[in-house]
Design a protein that fits this description.
The complex is a heterodimer of chains A (112) and B (112).
Chain A: E1 4-7, E2 10-13, E3 19-25, E4 31-38, E5 42-51, E6 54-57, E7 65-66, E8 76-78, E9 87-94, E10 102-103, E11 107-111
Parallel strand pairs in A: 2-11
Antiparallel strand pairs in A: 1-3, 3-8, 4-5, 4-9, 5-6, 7-8, 9-10, 9-11
Chain B: E1 5-7, E2 10-14, E3 19-24, E4 31-37, E5 44-50, E6 55-58, E7 61-66, E8 71-76, E9 85-92, E10 106-111
Parallel strand pairs in B: 2-10
Antiparallel strand pairs in B: 1-3, 3-8, 4-5, 4-9, 6-7, 7-8, 9-10
Classes of the chains: A mainly beta (112), B mainly beta (112).
Chain lengths: 112, 112
């Protein structure tokens, strides 16, 4: 089944404790992206990647890191999480020549 | 940068009625996409309309695009309780293919 998977789905952590949210797609898509969703603000793009080893900042990259060492994986790293990073996070992927994005199920992160 | 702004913010209708929501954006686009999100879940792509298209249909969905007014509309005909969801537009320009900027969405509630 073609899909985008994220792990973990739920995470409660404390300020300053490094964490990684994984994202993996099995559709051989070149493009991958991370979003956060907060009430009243819609989805805001954090980082995106057009291909392996190519990443670019979205609208809200501060406090986040990403890497794209393999085509299928695009992990989101929070080196020192803070409470304002409490949010619902979505990973998405897309074929390079088609803009339709396929979204993962989301990761609900709470930083205390 | 590009951002879709959906209007209205919320819409409540009864089953069988039509639901119409609008999207406005700021600059020139290559295409505009509509997505649906069921409560807390990942977004699902509904339809993509290119800048040279004026209208597109998919099942009970009808999307229009007016590039002169920088606006799009999504019509759901004969709505069902299962259409209850949030709907987002995402304008995409050629210059920023990788950047998708969603608005806050229109929350649609369809009551039986």
């Amino acid at each position: 089944e073609a899909q985008v998977t994220q792990n973990p789905r739920y995470l409660i952590t404390v300020t300053g404790k490094k964490l990684t949210v994984t994202c993996s797609q099995n559709m051989n898509h070149e493009y991958m992206s991370w979003y956060r969703q907060d009430p009243g603000l819609g989805l805001r793009q954090i980082y995106y990647s057009m291909n392996v080893e190519v990443t670019d900042k979205g609208d809200v990259p501060e406090g986040y890191k990403v890497s794209r060492k393999e085509k299928r994986n695009f992990p989101l790293i929070l080196e020192s999480p803070s409470p304002n990073q409490t949010s619902l996070y979505f990973c998405a992927s897309s074929p390079r020549t088609v803009n339709e994005q396929f979204f993962g199920p989301g990761t609900r992160l709470t930083v205390l | 940068s590009q951002q879709g702004e959906e209007d209205p913010q919320a819409l409540s209708i009864q089953e069988g009625e039509n639901a119409t929501m609008n999207c406005s954006y700021k600059t020139s686009i290559n295409n505009l996409q509509w997505y649906r999100q069921n409560s807390g879940r990942g977004l699902v792509h509904l339809i993509l309309i290119r800048s040279n298209e004026r209208e597109k249909h998919s099942g009970r969905l009808r999307v229009t695009l007016d590039t002169s007014k920088k606006s799009s509309s999504l019509l759901i005909t004969a709505s069902r309780a299962a259409d209850t969801a949030s709907y987002f537009c995402a304008p995409v320009s050629t210059d920023s293919w990788g950047k998708l900027q969603f608005g806050a969405g229109t929350q649609v509630v369809v009551t039986p």
